[in-house]
Q: What sequence folds into this?
């Protein structure tokens, strides 16, 4: 491929849009497309050339980069759906398919098999870093694919992010992503519970932070995304929990982890419970709030620090989450959000 190979960028939402802009700024010939008119218009306004259809964008491209809400979107786009020709058929032979969506591991492997079977190449590279990282070009990519293919797309990843870790073969990037976010979801719940407990015991937020951040309780959920305002001025808690990383996306990722736990027979207890808790959070206003806002639900279950009674409607919802099936509303909200963390 030429040094600045042509890129078809499909999925120009909150994450994909800024990523495409960074490729354009780096001198890559990019043609974007999104089924959402507002996303398409925003990308155009930011300087990303666009096509009238996905097929038009893909035609002649060296790399097809997809950033979609779910695995079903990726597979349908690759194969074609509702009588439309799929991306694999529309692309020229030997095209590199680089999927940066966050999807099930088995779906990533199926997508790779479809691409390779159609005479193309495939790499999965889900991202971490949120919208801020997408805009700043500081994302971390967790990458799965053949060595040669990963090195082939590394120049693109280096433009859009600050780190790209080759985790193994096809699907390994997705595996690393869901394992990482399983840790993150569980740890944020634990940190939030600790702060609410500290409130009940008369500890100030700053005192608990000063101890835990320098002791064995130290973790990213505490030191970077602290769920209470004050100790970490840049955390979403200081902006009324504006994301950041939305609760709907954490619910989505934890359900991907839950699928993997079930399929592999891992005797997990914390992960499934965290998935249920975040499903409930995302079924309401938490869908559009930062995932660290889960602390507000924990307070509502516990009674507020000033002695006020808890919000019974929120308490009931969380109590239901401890033993029931995850609400489908949260899953839908997460899958409909085209901005993977």
A:
């Amino acid at each position: 491929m030429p040094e600045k190979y042509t890129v078809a960028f499909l999925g120009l939402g909150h994450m994909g849009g800024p990523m495409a802009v960074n490729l354009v700024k780096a001198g890559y010939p990019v043609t974007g497309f999104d089924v959402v008119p507002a996303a398409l218009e925003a990308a155009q306004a930011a300087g990303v050339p666009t096509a009238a259809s996905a097929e038009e964008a893909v035609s002649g491209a060296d790399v097809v980069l997809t950033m979609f809400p779910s695995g079903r979107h990726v597979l349908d786009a690759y194969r074609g759906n509702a009588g439309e020709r799929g991306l694999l058929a529309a692309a020229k032979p030997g095209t590199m398919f680089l999927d940066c969506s966050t999807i099930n591991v088995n779906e990533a492997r199926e997508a790779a098999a479809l691409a390779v079977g159609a005479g193309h190449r495939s790499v999965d590279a889900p991202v971490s870093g949120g919208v801020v990282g997408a805009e700043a070009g500081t994302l971390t990519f967790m990458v799965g694919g053949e060595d040669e293919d990963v090195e082939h797309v590394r120049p693109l990843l280096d433009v859009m992010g600050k780190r790209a870790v080759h985790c193994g073969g096809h699907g390994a990037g997705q595996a690393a992503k869901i394992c990482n976010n399983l840790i993150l979801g569980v740890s944020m719940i634990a940190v939030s519970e600790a702060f609410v407990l500290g409130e009940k015991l008369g500890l100030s937020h700053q005192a608990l932070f000063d101890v835990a951040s320098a002791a064995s309780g130290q973790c990213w959920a505490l030191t970077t995304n602290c769920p209470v305002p004050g100790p970490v001025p840049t955390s979403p808690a200081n902006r009324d929990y504006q994301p950041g990383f939305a609760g709907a996306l954490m619910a989505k990722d934890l359900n991907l982890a839950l699928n993997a736990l079930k399929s592999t027979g891992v005797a997990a207890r914390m992960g499934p419970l965290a998935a249920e808790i975040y499903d409930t959070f995302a079924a309401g206003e938490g869908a559009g709030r930062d995932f660290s806002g889960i602390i507000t639900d924990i307070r509502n279950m516990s009674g507020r620090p000033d002695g006020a009674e808890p919000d019974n409607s929120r308490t009931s919802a969380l109590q239901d989450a401890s033993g029931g099936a995850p609400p489908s509303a949260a899953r839908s909200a997460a899958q409909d959000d085209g901005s993977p963390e």
User: Anything to note?
Assistant: Residues 305-341 have pLDDT under 50 and may be disordered.
